[in-house]
Amino acid sequence: MNKKTAILIGATGLTGGKLLELLLADTSFKKVKIFGRSSTGIKHPKLEEHLGDMFQMQHFSEVFTGDVVFCCIGTTKAKTPNKETYKKIDYGIPVAAAKLAKKNGISVFEVISALGANATSSTFYNKVKGEMERDVTAVGLENTYFFQPSLIGGDRSEKRLGEQTAQLVMGALSFLVPKKYKIITPETIAKAMLSVAINGYDKVIIESDEIKQIVAG
């Protein structure tokens, strides 16, 4: 079996960090290339870090080579209140990465979006995610997958009061929440992304409940 080279964007985030652990442990991958602004601090023989300005993805062109791209980049309104900067992160980086993948002949591109993503939405967050999906699709990669989780549970280094409150409420009222909208863990998303990279999937858009089904088998 030909072992793959993975490209991971967003490795210092909650889901990206879990995915990095899985990729380093998985024998299907011979190398994991990380692209980011800051180092993960992890040392591993399979790991190759490339640090720089993520708003200038073209500077990574020569080393942005591999078999599959995992894009786990993302921010929040609390962390990035400036809408222009927010869009540069959640829209600009994935679209630029998709274009680099196309240029360098990478056939698989996986990106974390959000449940409710819609380019015509009146909600800024959903609109940005929808525009990202639309324009990544327009790049024309051979295999593109958009993972649309609901609220992601887990402990983050920075405090996000709104998300913490939502997690508590949704957790307490879980029996009332439709399956699609139930809290999902970063581990589950990471495992699903790895599975799809290895085995493929018959849908481009993979909603939160389907992400869980992939992992459950």
In short:
By secondary structure, this protein is of the alpha/beta class.
Mean pLDDT: 91
The separation of the N and C termini measures 23 Å
Number of strands: 7
The largest sheet is: 7 strands, parallel
How many individual helices? 6
Using the alpha-carbon principal axes, give the shape: globular
Biggest β-sheet: strands ordered side by side in the sheet: 3-2-1-4-5-6-7
**Percentage of residues in strands:** 15-25%
Query: Roughly what percent helix?
Result: 25-40%
Give a quick set of tags describing it.
seven-stranded parallel β-sheet; 217 residues; 7 strands; 6 helices; alpha/beta
How would you explain this protein's 3D organization?
This protein has 217 residues and is of the alpha/beta class. It contains 6 helices and 7 strands. The protein has helices at residues 14-25, 83-103, 124-139, 161-172, 186-199, 208-216; strands at 4-9, 29-36, 47-51, 68-71, 108-112, 143-148, 205-207. The chain has a 7-stranded parallel beta sheet with strand order 3-2-1-4-5-6-7, with helices on both faces. Helix 1 links the parallel strand 1 and strand 2 (29-36). Helix 2 packs parallel to helix 3 (124-139) and helix 5 packs across helix 6. The radius of gyration is 16 Å and the shape is globular.
Question: What does the secondary structure layout of this molecule look like, with pairings?
Answer:
Blueprint: E1 4-9, H1 14-25, E2 29-36, E3 47-51, E4 68-71, H2 83-103, E5 108-112, H3 124-139, E6 143-148, H4 161-172, H5 186-199, E7 205-207, H6 208-216
Parallel strand pairs: 1-2, 1-4, 2-3, 4-5, 5-6, 6-7
